[in-house]
Amino acid sequence: MAIRLMAMMFVLHIILLLNANVPSTYARLLGNKTMSKEKVIRRYLVENGLGLTPPMGWSSWNHFGCDVNESIVRETADAMVSSGLANLGYHYLNLDDCWAELNRDSEGNMVPNTATFPSGMKALADYVHNKGLKLGIYSDAGTLTCSKRMPGSLGHEEQDAKTFASWGIDYLKYDNCENNGISPKERYPPMSEALMKSGRSIFFSMCEWGWEDPATWAKSVGNSWRTTGDIEDNWNSMTSIADSNNKWASYAGPGGWNDPDMLEVGNGGMTTEEYRSHFSIWALAKAPLLVGCDIRAMDNTTYELITNSEVIAVNQDKLGVQGKKVKSTNDLEVWAGPLSENKLAVILWNRSSSNATVIASWSEIGLEPEAIVDARDLWEHSTQLFVSKEISAEIDSHACKMYVLTPTS
Ligand SMILES: *[C@@H]1O[C@H](CO)[C@@H](O)[C@H](O)[C@H]1NC(C)=O
Ligand SMILES: *[C@@H]1O[C@H](CO)[C@@H](O)[C@H](O)[C@H]1NC(C)=O
Ligand SMILES: *[C@@H]1O[C@H](CO)[C@@H](O)[C@H](O)[C@H]1NC(C)=O
Ligand SMILES: *[C@@H]1O[C@H](CO)[C@@H](O)[C@H](O)[C@H]1NC(C)=O
Ligand SMILES: CC(=O)N[C@H]1CO[C@H](CO)[C@@H](O)[C@@H]1O
Q1: Alpha carbon of 78 to those of 45, 55, 75, 123, 227: distances in Å?
Q2: Keywords for this entry (predicted)?
Q3: Closest atom, ligand 1, to C-alpha of 39
Q4: DSSP 348
């Protein structure tokens, strides 16, 4: 009886803590006069708890572009739950460009497009929240968004952040078009602060396309920052973005993540093995896992790729260290990174045009030469016991193998 009561009180305590978290964290940190504003925001971005691991969910852009509407979002929310994606951690449903009217209302507020979002954003957020999911929205650190069909938030940061909070928005992607030539370093912090003051925990996803090396400064502005231009649904775009993003690996960690853009898996422009590589590298690189296909109609192959819970576990590992490319010879690559509990994630990737044997020796991936490991193949779901010195595999062109290595002693 006493134990049950204590357990209940404990749960209650956690619930209270979670609810009280937002404004009080910010106020408490602001009250500490020994910290610079920059440091306060940096601490807040960790303590708000939103970016302890990379965000997971879905975004409308890669598949729907501007042709998105509230029925699509509701049906996608239903599919997220019925397909089991929600249970695997895909929680954000993110609107991208084109959700608003071109003109603000007489009080200067952004207005949902009356034709495509006739019920409004509050109703949509309620629907999504009732499914146990979260709703993301989109704006731009400029005068208009990239489609030029809706206003940007430059100069309206506080008002728009309050509007988003009042609707129950959980995530903001903030784009970089129509920016009047002003540096991102001046345009992004005002929205960061506006979100913190909004009274609601809102994940801040910065999208300045890697212009001013955001990895070096954005950790005190947002919970994630794009490191590159937009991804396209083809092998060349995906691999070149993976490489550009890789340069900034050492800057990522709990609270702030490099973002090489949303997933294209399931959109049809790459082969199954190319999509498997795409998903594996994004997971290892601790990238946001934002599915970009129409999940209401995804095929079985897509489903198999994006629901691999062992690969997702690498992405969501609590250590939060971005894996990186550790070897590259003639398009045969090894990517690796540490995980919690002394484990190691490794990808052998054949980027060449014919099949090949790819080898990772222990010294190349940071293991002691005498280490003995169990090697879990995350795509075959099989384990090789007592592997020594190196791991290797024959791999088809553009395919990869992904392992978690666990030292046996
Ligand atoms: C204020 O911040 C400093 C630096 O992070 C920390 O050492 C100190 O304990 C904080 N003070 C209070 C009262 O939280
Ligand atoms: C949303 O788009 C779909 C497909 O284009 C269409 O069938 C549906 O009626 C639209 N719903 C709204 C609210 O615009
Ligand atoms: C996809 O998977 C479902 C359920 O496992 C199965 O019934 C269906 O036949 C599969 N479709 C194809 C095209 O393989
Ligand atoms: C690699 O290519 C050779 C020759 O074409 C073939 O015999 C072998 O089965 C291929 N291996 C794989 C893993 O595809
Ligand atoms: C470009 C490249 O490295 N291609 C290699 C792919 O794998 C085959 C088989 O091992 C090699 O012969 C190619 O040189």
Answers
A1: 30, 19, 5, 15, 32
A2: Disulfide bond, Glycosidase, Hydrolase, Signal
A3: 5
A4: E
CB-based pocket (< 6 A), ligand 1: 32, 34-35
Domain that holds residue 345: 324-407
Among all bound ligands, the one having the nearest atom to the CA of 301 is 3
Note whether 257 and 335 are same-domain residues.
no
**350 alpha carbon, closest ligand:** 5
Per-residue pLDDT tens for 19-78?
445 667 888 888 888 999 889 998 999 988 999 999 999 999 999 999 999 999 999 999
Q: Which atom of ligand 1 is nearest to the CA of 32?
A: 1
Domain-embedded: residue 2: no
Query: Tens digit of pLDDT for each residue in 308-360?
Result: 999 999 999 999 999 999 999 999 999 999 999 999 999 999 999 999 999 99
Are residues 65 and 200 located together in one domain of the fold? yes
Ligand 2 neighbour 71 (Cβ under 6 A): yes
- When divided into structural domains, the chain yields a total of 2
Q: What is the Å distance from ligand 5's center to 103 Cα? A: 56
Would you state the torsion angle of the CA atoms of residues 75, 76, 82, 83, taken in this order, to the nearest 10 degrees?
140
Look at ligand 5, atom 11, and give the residue with the nearest C-alpha: 356
* The pair of three-digit structure tokens given for residue 60, joined into one six-digit string: 């409308």
Residue bearing the CA closest to ligand 1, atom 6: 34
Rounded CA separation 140/357 (Å): 45
Domain boundary among 316, 349, 379: 316
Residue 29 placed within a domain: no
pLDDT over 90 at 129, yes or no = yes
Residues 391 and 298 occupy one common structural domain: no
Which are the catalytic amino acids? 175, 230
The enclosing domain of 368 has a CATH number of 2.60.40.1180
Is the domain of 86 the same as that of 221? yes
